[in-house]
Amino acid sequence: MKSHISILSILMICNYFLFGTFSQDIVMELTPMERSCANWGDYNNDGYQDLLITGTDGGSQYSDAMTKLYQNDSGHNLVDIINHGLPQNSGKFDWGDYDNDG
């Protein structure tokens, strides 16, 4: 029994040092969407995961498609990028590295 507790203690300590802890709550308001898809990726190659969301505004049967890009500002905030140049879309998507720069 004592060896199980020691092993568990070691695993918990290793977990703390390897993965750290999450202690900061970040609250932000995202644009409400229906029939949406969201995915994380590093669009500006700064090492921080950015958030891309597509969907519709849900206002009517033929709702307008929307694409929202939120840039991760050094791991502290997600900034809404207004002029991202992406098509307005409500479908599924995935990230890719088209110029192989990382």
What does this structure look like?
- 18% of the residues lie in helices and 28% in strands.
- The protein has a four-stranded antiparallel sheet, with no helix packed on it.
- It has a domain at 29-94.
- The mean pLDDT is 76.
- It has one helix spanning 2-19; strands at 34-41, 50-56, 65-73, 77-81.
- The protein is of the alpha+beta class and 102 residues long.
- Strand 3 and strand 4 form a beta hairpin.
- The protein contains one helix and four strands; from the N terminus they run αββββ.
- It is globular and about 55 Å long.
Biggest sheet descriptor: 4 strands, antiparallel
Gyration radius (Cα, Å) is: 20 Å
The low-pLDDT segments are none
Helix segment tally? 1
Given the C-alpha coordinates, what overall shape results? globular
Mean pLDDT: 76
Helix and strand element order: HEEEE
Strand runs, count: 4
Helix fraction by DSSP (H/I, runs of at least 4): 10-25%
What strand order characterises the main sheet?
1-2-3-4
* SS strand fraction: 25-35%
- Helix and strand content put the structural class at alpha+beta
Kindly report how far apart the N and C termini lie.
Answer: 48 Å
